[in-house]
Amino acid sequence: MPELLRMPEVAAGTGSARLAQWLVEEGSQVPAGQPLALVETDKASVDLDASGPVRVVRRLAEAGQDLEVGAPLALLAAWDEPLENPEAALVAFGLATVGPSAAAPGEANPAAATPRTGQPPAPSEPGPVSAGRRFASPLARRLAARAGIPLEAIEGTGPGGRVVRADVERAIATRTAPVPAAPVPPAPATVPAPASSAEEAVQRIPHSRLRLAIASRLSAAKAEVPHFYLRRTLRAEALEAFRADLRSAGVEVSLTVLLVKAVALAHRRVPALHVRWTPDALEVPDRVDVGVAVAVEGGLVAPVLRDVDRRSLGQLGRDLADLAERARAGQLRQAELEGGTITVSNLGMFGTEEFAAVLNPPQAAILAVGAVLDAPVVDPDGALRAGRVLHCTLSVDHRVVDGADAARWMAALGAVLERPLALAG
Questions:
Q1: CA 291 centroid distance within chain
Q2: What is the pLDDT of residues 89-145, one digit of tens each?
Q3: Same domain for 253 and 145
Q4: Exposed site from 97, 105, 169, 288, fewest CB < 10 Å?
């Protein structure tokens, strides 16, 4: 029997996603497990694989569309299944309307099916307007409203003339300033006044899906999660010497990798932070996974490294490099962004001395790390000398972690970083 390929719920709570690219053509025979299309969420790209050997009878959505979960993407059939009337199959799925064909007078008037891909039929007049309504994707409507462009002024290129995101972006790029309805008479000659700041030209850049997702999540995190913060200045001479020894042994690892491993060891020593908040209960994972903040074009993502405390620094370095490269290319899987109880955000490479980060719910904490700096330090014997220090700030969810436990965790982190031989395990 024919079947429909539908937009999946890529991540829990995701209401829509973008059909980024078709990877097969209509009529293609696709073996089981081979990807049919590429779907983008706010942070990741996901392949839609064939569940069995199928033939792509008809594609029902265009690349670039933002579609709700469950929206039909394609009509599929088995390789050996004859499907001589795809329109009848679409009618059976409720995706086409049936109307009279243009039969000659006196001839039989069989029903003809008109595909409609989940959208109202396109009207005869140009543009998808029916009873005063302009059909557009939800994202296209939001972008057009922010840019102040009426939907009626945008030419739709989606199915049935539906306005999609690309149409709005094209309209924004080609928009020109409005022409006054009537000429304005010249004002009397006066001394020119300085231009008001309100008259300056302003460029409007529509929000990307990633930026909207970041804004939504961080706003919710600050509004709903009671943060508290702990700051600690750590001695960094031993850590830098340890990293130099690794380099001499042919193991090149970044400071971020050392920090991630130290965080995992601190979690094992103080498991009170190794938790996640849910509305019903605390979750305590059986392995230590750590997120790492990675800057990408237009935003930030935090892929998760798995089993950090049990793996070597070399393995962690290779995995982190791979995740960061694919994050910047927009090729992360949704599963690679899920899990973990803590994230490490390192801005030291930009010269930032100290900062506090916003939690990434449902994780219980995030560690913000600044640059390693020259600073006066006091040795145990009271001698003052020049040294190297590292400023760390831990943001904590007070719903699941108490201050004393967070302080013990910071002490454990400091013990690992100031005596870093434990990182070699």
A1: 14
A2: 888 888 865 544 433 333 333 334 444 444 433 333 333 443 345 667 656 776 777
A3: no
A4: 105
Q: For residues 414 and 395, what is the distance between their CA atoms, to the nearest angstrom?
A: 16
415 in any annotated domain: yes
Q: Tell me if 124 sits within 8 A of 114, measured CB to CB.
A: no
CA 179 remoteness from chain centre: 40
Q: Map tokens 């001695």 to a residue.
A: 235
Partnered with residue 8 across adjacent β-strands are: none
Q: Which of 207, 267, 274, 398 is catalytic?
A: 398
Among the listed residues 323, 381, 343, the one whose alpha carbon sits nearest the alpha carbon of residue 221: 343
187 in any annotated domain: no
Name the token pair of 371.
């640059």
CATH of the domain at 340: 3.30.559.10
Beta-strand ranges (E) seen in 357-416 are 365-378, 384-397
Which strands, in side-by-side order, build the sheet including 66-68? 45-49, 35-40, 16-22, 66-68
Domain holding 259, by residue range, is 226-424
Whether 133 and 111 map to the same domain: the answer is no
Quick one: which H or E segment has residue 344?
Answer: strand 342-346
Q: How many domains, in total, are found in the chain?
A: 3
Three-state DSSP state, 333: coil
**Does residue 419 lie in a domain region?**
yes
391 is catalytic: no
One domain, residues 242 and 367: yes
